[in-house]
Amino acid sequence: MNQERLKLHLEALVRDRDPYLATAGHFFVRQYIRQQLEQWGSVAVHEFQVRGTTHQNLILDLPVAESSTGSASPEKKTNPTTAHPNTRPNRQSRALPPILIGAHYDAVPGTPGADDNASGVAALLELARAFAAEPPRYPLRLVAFDMEEYGLLGSAAYAEALKQQQQPLRLMLSLEMLGYCDPMPGSQTYPPGLKYFYPNRGDFIALVGNWRTVPDLIHLSRQMRRAGVPSQWLPAGQRGLLVPATRLSDHSPFWDRGYRALMVTDTSFLRNPHYHRASDRIETLDLDFLAGVGRGLIRGIRDL
Question: Which of 15, 17, 67, 114 has the fewest Cβ atoms surrounding its Cβ within 10 A?
């Protein structure tokens, strides 16, 4: 994954963008994401209501590789798969359930949100580029979620819409803070009990899934390591209720509705001292680490 393109995305995304208190920044970021995704296909909008205000999740569906369907893939800028949950899936999506990759684009008031979660959105945009050029075996659905910081509201609305329509998923991945790395001993903390099983250096990417994703956790962790990024994985039983910190991203509404879902994360406040602060800026990120995570995701998703 290209560091320079990631940095360009970050320069556009990193700004105050709370949906109520920084509306101009929030609107700019949403439009930027939409314009970037529209390079690769038609972007659908999933609208949901919060206290009388309409919010938007942005959705891009990418087709499978030619060998997966037995027919030629469409041109890059045409997109036959409609992403909105209230529409009927086409032949491709009926044959193979999609892999959904999501990242939230809102941020808490008073922070430019470089790691949280511009890093995840930047990776999402570059995954769109990579998989539009070389489609994987499964169709991909890329979703930029709104209102994560207000209680995972965008992902919960979308997961519920999918569940009501009985739309299956191969897997859901939430990209939640991917760019902070600290190799110093003692830089990594954990919820109670976990420190005895994992390293004390914050130089790895963590994969956290429900029990049904254990084979995927093992596979993706292996591919991360092959891409040069240390990786640790954790199966969270009982939908993460035993370790509440494992629920703090857009995967957990999918857990609650019975989907296979996992979070890809640098562990957030368990490592990053700039979490939810004004100091969460581009210069605090490790772009080499972020690019490596992206390369690992491309390798792992392509082989699922």
Answer: 67
Look at residues 137, 160, 15, 157 and name the one whose alpha carbon lies nearest to residue 70. Answer: 137
Q: In which residue are the tokens 């169709």 written? A: 139
Q: CATH code for 3-302?
A: 3.40.630.10
Instruction: Say if CB 269 and CB 187 are below 8 A apart.
Output: no
Q: How many CA atoms lie within 13 A of 159 on its CB side?
A: 27
Q: In what order do the strands lie in the sheet with 53-62?
A: 43-50, 53-62, 140-145, 99-104, 171-176, 261-265, 205-209, 231-235
Q: What tokens does 40 get?
A: 């690769």
What is the percent of the chain where pLDDT is above 70? Answer: 91
What is the distance between the alpha carbons of residues 240 and 243, in angstroms, rounded to a whole number?
5
Sorting pLDDT into bands at 50, 70 and 90, what band is 161?
very high
Helices 3-13 and 287-302 sit at what angle, rounded to 10 degrees? 110
Whether 68 and 94 have beta carbons less than 8 Å apart is answered as no
User: Taking 60 as the threshold, does the pLDDT of residue 86 lie above it?
Assistant: no
* pLDDT higher than threshold 60 for residue 75: no
**How do strand 43-50 and strand 53-62 relate by DSSP bridges?**
antiparallel
pLDDT exceeds cutoff 50 at 92: no
Single out the residue of 60, 219, 35 nearest to residue 131, CA to CA.
Answer: 60
**Eight-state DSSP code of residue 227:** T
- pTM for the predicted model, two decimal places: 0.91
Q: 261 falls in which pLDDT band (50, 70, 90)?
A: very high
Are the CB atoms for 88 and 159 separated by under 8 Å? no
Exposed/middle/buried for residue 129 (C-beta within 10 Å: 0-12, 13-18, 19+):
middle
Residue 177 backbone zone (phi > 0: left; psi -120 to 50: alpha; other: beta): left
